[in-house]
Amino acid sequence: MNNELGKFFLNQNTVVESKLNQYISTLTKEELPHRFLFDKLENYINNFIEKKSEKRWVIIPGLRGTGKTTLLAQLYFYILKKYKKNVDLLFVSLDEAKEYFHIDLLEIIKYYEENKSKRFEELDRPLFIFLDEIQIYKNWAKLLKTIYDRSKKVFIFCSGSSALELQTTADVARRAIIEKLHPLSFTEYQILKNNIHPPSNIKNEIFNSIYHSANVTDILTSLTRLKPKLDNYFSEIPQDSLENYLYSGTMPFTLLQDDEAYLYRSIDSLLDKIIKNDIAMYGNLDRDTTDSIKRILFILSDSENISLTKLSEVLHLNKLTVTRILEYLEQSEILIRIFPYGSNIKKVRKPSKYLFMTPAIRASLYKISGLQDTFNTRRGPLLEDIFGMHFYKEFLIPNIGNVSYDTSNKCADFILQILNKKQIAIEVGIGEKGIKQVMNTMNNIKCNYGVVFSNDSLFIDKSINIIKVPLNYFLLM
Fold this sequence. Notes:
Helix content: 40-55%
Mean pLDDT: 89
Number of helices: 20
Oligomer: single chain
Shape: globular
Largest sheet: 8 strands, mixed
């Protein structure tokens, strides 16, 4: 095994930087722009070096394909360029270590200490450890906690699939910072794809206006004031940007590839990895159950909501198994579950609505199942996925809000509850959109106001407290 470890570290020393360069540069050697999260992680590094903070363990979970390896590579080269003479760096891709060298993380750490002839407790300068795809190593949390506790000169970055969070213990949570990497927002997409940056602070201004105004009149006033900035920004945006963003642009790895067939094959391969490498491993699922997961995704891609009973009948599985699969799909961040509005009894009796964490997954399932011929008629669900992704990131993850839906017929798509203080009925659509669905929900459920996002112009009806907001405003949040 020492021979394999020697080969691994020889490989690391000779090719690690050239390998990482492939993640941070285009084929023409142009450096890729940074995700928004980069600046926050850069601050952690600088504060640690300057002894302004003791935060020195960052866990970066997220859906596969969101750019975690690229982010780690960019951080590695940032440190290399700024601090190389004063720090040491170790970058390990654990899937490569396991697949090609058949070694695990504990062996790598022990070998590193032995060959440096210095234990972590004896370090005389900072050591940055980058561990990619760490969920492959089942005991990662316990081992990294030990390394963290052994030396205050060690800074750990580790990334992996969303399954990482299934193993995050209370001890880890007290020591580590979790910075989730989400699919691309529309503004990040424009920066990475077209180098077009949004106006300064416009996201916060729109966000606060729509979600924290007292009434629709106040929303109209503030959004009207922002309209010149918004119009100027969208004057630079290519006309097909929304279509491209809906179908694949939420996933960074698709940005440098124009071959549609290749894109959707890549997304399908990504799904298979999540199912076979993450869900099957952490869920201890048998082969037949694992094989059913893809079938559930195909069904959900073409169904806004479907009962557990119906899914069980179609798949010939018991309800408990179907429930477990749906829970794993949520935990792996393929799906976002939207509960029916109301009491716990109603939530049990009525089916939940399942959205995809990124519309790129739904679009790839359309393509594979032969539903791509009706793409234009299916843009509505893709847009709902974008809204679900937004609510998940801005309200559900920080635990400042809840999202549900009205189970009555012809009602709003979402009911957003913010800090148990405010309820907003929300309807979304591409093209012109009426206000009837929002009115119906507001008649059923007490809401502070209703918002319709569509291609219509800014408009309010004060008598019923509903505002129409162009989709462009939402895309900047």
